[in-house]
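Practice problem 4.
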């Protein structure tokens, strides 16, 4: 994505073409979820949320062979060109060059306690992509949530000591997986046992799948300060069933809806925003709702 932006952004702007990555489970619930939350809190409190936290509550489905291949390929590219580690380490790697960045850092490895939801939080495997997409949206929109806007993602694990231990094990497992995939011999061994591109859950498992996400937003302190919670859900396996419907609706939205704005390498929120949210609710089994 960073390479595409560097090579083709100016050409896309000049031609008016809209090129939009991450139109599936990564990163539509994140990107449009933040967009929806910010609109709701602006309407309620008259100011944006300066901090948004994404929490995967639950999900069911299978592993996407294409996603696995993409992640392993990324590690292959890093092995060939170690300079790419600089890009991967930058939480604002997808932002336009020379734009103001905030205080976000790379995703936390250790368990976190979410005081609002009262549970321990472990890593979310796709946070490294989703967070950067949301930050690019914010930058392309002119930073309407303020220069200090902060965004992070994680998975709700559970409450109490048991929740902490589960979150700790999830963190350790994530880091072990990253370490194994970073080394060529073990990466090639993993590739032999993981799903291949085109492989994934069968129809019954896709149709029985689902996902639920809660996003929590907090405004700056002041007379109108406050918070809001938004729930985003899908009625299919996120990796295949839900993603297939999201990609299809994004394509139809780009082709048929009267979208405003210039061309460029954009994000779902910047390119389609509320028009795509409407389509996803109507046709793709997703919900976006304020719950607090």
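Answer key:
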């Amino acid at each position: 994505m960073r390479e595409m932006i560097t090579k083709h952004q100016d050409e896309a702007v000049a031609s008016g073409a809209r090129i939009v990555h991450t139109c599936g489970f990564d990163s539509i619930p994140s990107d449009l979820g933040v967009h929806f939350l910010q609109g709701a809190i602006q309407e309620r409190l008259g100011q944006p949320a300066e901090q948004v936290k994404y929490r995967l509550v639950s999900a069911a489905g299978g592993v996407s062979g294409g996603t696995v291949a993409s992640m392993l390929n990324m590690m292959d590219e890093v092995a060939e060109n170690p300079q790419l580690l600089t890009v991967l380490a930058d939480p604002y790697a997808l932002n336009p060059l020379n734009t103001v960045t905030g205080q976000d850092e790379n995703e936390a490895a250790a368990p976190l306690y979410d005081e609002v939801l009262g549970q321990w939080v472990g890593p979310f495997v796709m946070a490294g992509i989703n967070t950067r997409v949301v930050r690019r949206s914010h930058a392309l929109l002119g930073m309407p949530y303020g220069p200090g806007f902060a965004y992070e993602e994680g998975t709700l694990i559970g409450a109490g000591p048991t929740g902490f231990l589960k979150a700790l094990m999830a963190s350790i497992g994530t880091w072990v997986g990253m370490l194994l995939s970073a080394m060529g011999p073990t990466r090639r061994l993993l590739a032999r046992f993981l799903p291949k591109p085109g492989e994934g859950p069968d129809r019954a498992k896709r149709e029985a799948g689902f996902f639920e996400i809660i996003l929590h937003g907090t405004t700056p302190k002041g007379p109108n300060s406050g918070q809001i919670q938004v729930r985003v859900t899908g009625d299919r396996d996120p990796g295949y069933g839900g993603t297939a419907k999201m990609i299809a609706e994004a394509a139809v939205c780009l082709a048929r809806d009267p979208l405003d704005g210039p061309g460029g390498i954009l994000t779902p929120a910047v390119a389609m925003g509320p028009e795509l949210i409407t389509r996803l609710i109507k046709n793709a089994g997703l919900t976006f709702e304020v719950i607090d």
